[in-house]
Amino acid sequence: MSSGKFQLKVPKGTKDWADKDMVLRTAIFDTIVSVFKRHGGVTLDTPVFELKEILAGKYGEDSKLIYDLKDQGGELCSLRYDLTVPFARYLAMNPTVQSMKRFHIAKVYRRDQPAMTKGRMREFYQCDFDIAGTFESMIPDAEILAIGVETLSDLGIKDFKAKLNHRGILDGIFQTCGVPEADVRKISSAVDKLDKLPWADVKKEMTIEKGLPEEVADKIGEYVKLKGGPELLEQLKADQSLMSNTSAKAGVDDLTRLFEYTDAYQITSYISFDLSLARGLDYYTGLIYEFVVASSAPPPSAGSAAEKKHAKKSKDKYIDDDDNSENVGVGSIAAGGRYDKLVGMFSNSKKGDIPCVGVSFGVERLFSLIKASINEDQLRANDTEVFVMAMGGGEGWTGFLKERMAVSKMLWEAGIKAEFQYKTKVKFRQQFEAAEKAGIPIALILGQEEYPNGYVKIKMLGTHAAGDGETVKVEDMIPTLKEKIATVNSTSALIESIRQL
């Protein structure tokens, strides 16, 4: 091994998670999973890397962000870019599975420009919920949107919107305006940047960079600047030119039905029908959506400059910028859509298509939002509920080490999270300081005189401290502790406290 010095750091776009950050992230996971299970989801796991050919051609212009791996044993593999394509591959490999409500929480990898403080990373968790199978139109789509609203609400995220559009409407707009079929996806990718760039920059990309006639771009601009609620559908229905397009009419019919269902779920107020939303991924076929908050957009003056800066970089090279948080918003905190043809891409059977719709939550972005809204004093690095202490002294005092071990064993078996200090004789004050430093809410004190006679003292600590404590019999120790534990805010109650902020 070389003796030369090297810089000790994690790779760009990654971070170590420890202590309070892990506590908060785990609470976020637990909240999301509880919603997924509430809606009947079953979990699935897939390999962290896939055959390169499985991922190729599924992500449009974003395919350049896939991490390719070195050839090992004759197989070319890539790190997974998302959890959707692996799910579609799984369905194609298991043809007996014709319907499924699946959720998956796992890391994905993107060779993207990092913006660490905004949760935009190269290695990050996605939490996906998908409904696969043939059902009546828009029923699964409406439930997926309801899952999105429930999850963000349960996480204490406020003032969010679900921006939605329909690929059929967007494709119909492009066809009506005169976009060549071969150019639809690359023009769609340009339109999708309207949440980051002004129309003038998007138009420039469509015309100068992608060769679209200016008059066609102007026609598109008249549509993609429109946004609103269900009333926007009536405006589109009155557009005879657009409604003569089969794709656009089918999309408007879908959304008309969808808004009836979102009314039933009482979530329509969260929805913004936005014709600029395009979603760059190639596999979407119908409804598409992004959940956003005010901080999702980049700073007003930064977007265009950032775009120009990164346009200069070679597409064949890694994007090596460090944290670019000042130029980047949080981005969408969840997104998804309908992808009815993706499974069929992997199937040799003509009947291989399985309609699917899903939503994906970006945990690191949610983490950034939630952490910014809370007082970190609410967090502690462990879940320990009781610190077992010994109090005594003088000649013959043993420190009650074995007694603290035995009592801790009793608490663990009762399901109580407990600790003690790893020292034979330890000063009473040091034990209190250790417990309070860790934020442990309850002390269980084994007194030199009291414990041999069958008694212990239970004392609340920190913000829960009250009085000198309560002396109880050893046989009453566990039920008394459980009563007191129920009165303090444990980590499991963390998200509930966040919701009340």
Automatic annotation (TrEMBL):
Role of this protein: Catalyzes the aminoacylation of histidyl-tRNA in both the cytoplasm and the mitochondrion.
Species name: Tortispora caseinolytica NRRL Y-17796
InterPro entries: aa-tRNA-synth_II, aa-tRNA-synth_II/BPL/LPL, Anticodon-bd, Anticodon-bd_dom_sf, His-tRNA-ligase, HisRS-like_core, HisRS/HisZ, HisRS_anticodon
Entry GO MF terms: ATP binding; histidine-tRNA ligase activity; sequence-specific mRNA binding
Domain of life: Eukaryota
Positions that bind L-histidine: 82-84, 110, 126, 130, 279, 283-284
Keyword Protein biosynthesis: yes
Known EC number: 6.1.1.21
Gene Ontology cellular component list: cytosol; mitochondrion
Primary residence: cytoplasm
Family of this protein: Belongs to the class-II aminoacyl-tRNA synthetase family.
Keywords: Aminoacyl-tRNA synthetase, ATP-binding, Cytoplasm, Ligase, Nucleotide-binding, Protein biosynthesis
Compartments where located: Cytoplasm
Protein's name in the database: Histidine--tRNA ligase, mitochondrial
GO annotation (BP), single: histidyl-tRNA aminoacylation
Catalytic activity: tRNA(His) + L-histidine + ATP = L-histidyl-tRNA(His) + AMP + diphosphate + H(+)
Gene3D superfamilies: Anticodon-binding domain, Bira Bifunctional Protein, Domain 2
Region (Disordered): 301-324
Residue ranges of domain Aminoacyl-transfer RNA synthetases class-II family profile in the record: 1-298
